[in-house]
Specification:
- The chain has two domains: 144 residues, NAD(P)-binding Rossmann-like Domain (Rossmann fold); 104 residues, UDP-galactose 4-epimerase, domain 1 (Alpha-Beta Complex), CATH 3.90.25.
- It starts with a strand and ends in an 11-residue tail after the last helix.
- The protein is an alpha/beta fold.
- The model has no long low-confidence stretch (mean pLDDT 92).
- Strands 3-2-1-4-5-6-11 form a seven-stranded parallel beta sheet, with helices on both faces. A two-stranded parallel sheet has the order 7-10.
Length: 316
């Protein structure tokens, strides 16, 4: 099967490409920035350049495509890139090209908690993207994962930077907000296993790992993986909101944004056992599978506090 992957060079995309190749699919990667395709060492990967925000650039990539895996998304807005431009308009553009090519399956990665509420810009535009997919005229499967972890992630590595720097780790709010961490490799496996399954067409799947965890528990797990004993102190959300507003005014990439702070009130959890029920395997737990956080050093932690994720940590 000829499968086009958007966002192929990203954190999730590279794993999806690997899983598809393992299953002997013909993989075509849509690459936004020339040179990024160097992350692939497979000669069997075909590369086409284009942007999901530029419909004219997509036509050459979609010839003979049978299925599309759409992974492009952003977690931070910028002067040049908006949530709606990527999550809704970009999705509509890719979907239109897939429909014109006669694709038989459109696999779309959204986010758990996607909601029809404009006060949550990220989750709202994810919801808008889902509406485009559902009404787009191509058989679809939508994935809504909880927070993803794995080597190169930004979430746990950022926490590791705090653990490395401070004997007392700051926690925003009560620390009780819930997550359902899922290994990025396991989500990639689920996506690849979906191809060819007629029973999953028209389905929206909320997916999480083996255990629901509070933010406090996630911080504790990172500290244990680093063999560090760390206390936590809780910072009021309103105070962090003020700090985020100020930092957004002069930092190109602040450590946390007001959009991200708003999402703390959203429970990011799925039904327990959903991966086992749908795909027949047990996802790996966070415990014992995050040794990569030990690679975060003091200099890395300082760089992250200043608003820049080190290239060697964020490897995509």
């Amino acid at each position: 099967m000829v499968v086009l992957v958007t966002g192929a060079t990203g954190f999730l995309g590279r794993r999806v490409v690997h899983e598809l190749l393992e299953r002997r699919h013909e993989v075509r990667c849509l690459v936004h920035t020339p040179g990024r395709e160097r992350v692939f060492n497979h000669r069997t990967v075909e590369v086409q350049y284009g942007s999901v925000q530029d419909p004219a650039s997509l036509s050459n990539a979609f010839y003979d495509v049978e299925a599309v895996v759409h992974l492009v998304g952003i977690i931070r807005r910028s002067r040049r890139t908006s949530f709606e431009g990527v999550h809704r308009v970009g999705t509509a553009n890719v979907l239109g090209a897939a429909k014109e090519a006669g694709a038989s399956h459109f696999l779309h990665v959204s986010a758990i908690g996607a909601i029809n509420d404009q006060s949550y810009p990220y989750l709202y535009t994810k919801w808008l993207g889902e509406r485009e997919v559902i009404g787009g005229g191509v058989p679809y499967t939508i994935f809504r994962p909880s927070v993803l972890f794995g080597e190169g992630d930004e979430f746990l590595n950022a926490l590791a930077g705090l653990v490395r720097l401070f004997p007392m780790v700051p926690v925003i709010g009560s620390g009780k907000n819930r997550y359902h961490p899922l290994a990025v490799d396991d989500l990639a496996r689920c996506i690849a296993m979906t191809l060819g399954r007629e029973d999953l067409k028209g389905q929206t799947l909320d997916l999480g790992g083996t255990k629901r965890m509070s933010y406090d528990e996630v911080v504790g797990e990172v500290a244990r993986a680093m063999s560090k004993r760390r206390f936590r102190f809780h910072v009021p959300v309103w105070l962090m909101y003020v700090a985020a507003l100020v930092s957004q005014g002069f930092m190109p990439r602040p450590p946390i944004t007001t959009d991200q702070l708003k999402m703390l009130s959203i429970r990011s959890v799925a039904e327990l056992g959903e991966v086992e029920r749908v795909f027949g395997f047990t996802p790996r737990p966070m415990e014992g599978n995050i040794d990569f956080v030990n690679s975060v050093g003091v200099a890395d932690g300082i760089q992250m506090l200043l608003g820049s994720m080190p290239r060697r940590v964020r490897d995509h």
